[in-house]
Amino acid sequence: MNCGKHACCMEDDSGSNSREILFMQPVFKQSVWGGSRLSEEWGYETPSSHTGECWAVSAHPHGDCIVDGGLFNKKHLSELWKNAPELFGNAHGDRFPLLVKIIDAESDLSIQVHPDDKYAAENEDGSLGKTECWYVLDVSEGAELIIGHNAGSRAELADMIKNGQWEKLLRHVPVGKGDFIQINPGTVHAIKGGIEVLETQQNSDITYRVYDYGRLSDGAPRSLQLEKSLDVITVPAVNADEIVLRAEKIAKSSEKNKLNLLISCDYYRVWRLETDGYAELEQVYPFLIMSVIDGEGFINDISIKKGDHFILPNGFGNVRLKGRMKIIASSINEK
Ligand code: ZN
Predict the structure, then answer these.
(1) Which of 59, 131, 271, 304, CA to CA, is 20 to 30 A from 310?
(2) From ligand 1's centre to the CA of 59, what distance in Å?
(3) Domains in the chain, ordered, with CATH?
(4) How high is the pLDDT of residue 5?
(5) Are 261 and 286 in contact (CB under 8 A)?
């Protein structure tokens, strides 16, 4: 049997890889702030020139990816999580725990904050909270993120929001290509225009909008969730230096052809891997998600390139990567 596109069904000559690579077919989301880079620079077939998000590895009901080729061709990731739990090391949880997406912001996203698991379970119908992190893929000159705020107390925060003192309240943080940022629940944040990131997050889309620059969408302002935002925003905010890992620092502490850990938190571990010729590693995690963000090459003799996203299932074993590629990988953090 051969799936055609990826030849993932080819027998492995080493005989050690009994499981197939699960290539994902992304789901695209259009938005007012989205751009055209997902089609122009990534080669995806996007629905419009305002495509803001590529949900690359997702089992969320609002964007459930299907497998592209192989034994599980056309199966939804959510189905596999339910019906073939051995692919994911029988990891616990009632839903696939992670969501990986590319976000292309042509203009500013709204200022927002996410709840943690406890608050979301109590107030959002049993949903998960949202911890997320961003690997910055590209920026236009002078690009900034909003991370955190300057209020000293909850009362001051409420006051500044009520009086619309956004310039005073919000922290603008300049960012560059290759920076990495962890956004814990309670952190006020926004991606601004000109920035493209690869986001790894908990499988949730619970977002509270704090401020939308007074913009109109279809003639009306988008709704804000101020009360819930005030409940969950962390005061005082964590220093941006503590959550932004700069590209230079990552480069200094990284080794080529190895998984280099960017973050380990309760929900996920994320690594950066830069292959230069040849890399070999063992898939020892419950499952390992990989997104090729630059270059092209081969994984165990199957050709891969920028824009491919796939999951190496549990027990995959030996992984051989050839070529010059940059890859962001992630898995859950087993407790
Ligand atoms: Zn967010």
Answers:
(1) 131
(2) 18
(3) 26-250 (2.60.120.10)
(4) 45
(5) no
